[in-house]
Amino acid sequence: MRATETAGRATRTLRGEVAEHELIERCRRGDEAAFRELVEQFKGLVFALIARSVTNRARAEELAQDVFLKVYRGLPYFRGDARLSTWIYRITVNVLSQERPDLATASLDEIKPGESEPRIRPAAADRAFADLTLKDRLDKAIQRLPIAHQVLINGHYLKGLQYDELAAALDLPMGTVKTHLHRAKRRLRHLLETEFR
Amino acid sequence: MNCDHLEPLIEGLADGTAALDAFGRAHLETCAVCQARVEQARDIERYLASREIPSPPSTFTAGVMALVADERWRTEQVVDLGFNLAIAAGVLVMLTGIGGLAWSLGLLTVTVDLDTILEAAGTGLGGRVVSQVQTIAMAAVLLTMALALWWWTEADSSF
Asked: What's the alpha-carbon Rg for chain B, to the nearest Å?
């Protein structure tokens, strides 16, 4: 039973790879409909990833369109070593990094001892989280995270992005994605307790 | 187990990917600070999972395709400019070649009147042209290739 499921998944994956390869080849041959299909396929996740990091919707749209323009320019040089989705998400991360260069190079390491130590006050914490401004505080705090952590958090909670795609897009070893995600959320919690109280 | 030991596990506890041993559970049950941190992490987890996914506007794809069309037009402009320059250079080379050929045939050293030239063209020129047939053929091939390249570039208007 399990072997059958595994074989079925492998077949679907293979079909997907063949379809992706065909789509890329059609785009390379100058098929406008193929490129439109590519945009339709990825625009949701690309736009969502960017719009969650860039609050200005018009700017987010510009950046998302810029991603696809870069995809168009890069298609003749895309060798197919990585999956198309991975390549597109990597371009998305680069575009976001160019938009916020100050956050692009920020360290992804653990919070250093003594740096913005959370000042938890149990009695006040419940009140704080009951506050209706929590959403705004969290949104602002997310935008203060390093770009890689933003992409991890925003990407993880978008349906359709897998750990391996996030790992490849961010150049992180697959085994460390979960650790980095926890670090990102921990940093978010610290920011909420320090700068966005 | 103390608060420092528990701190790195809080996000895992909040999203259900980590579990505490007996010592950890005992600490958590009695430590208000760690309980508040876990609760806070769970609130963050709930918020992150419930956030609305932003959707691109309905005009998004059309906008991308317009940008791509603009990009293609600019690229074609550059190609056209390069092609036109190449054609101009080719024409210049051909004119120089024709001039050189004419000079080698002695047509540029006009020392006689028109009647003499026409007479020479009718009689002596034929033999001279035959002796330069390779040069003339090469010029014809170059011209044909240039025209074919131009036709191919103009015809390839896909994408």
From this structure: 41
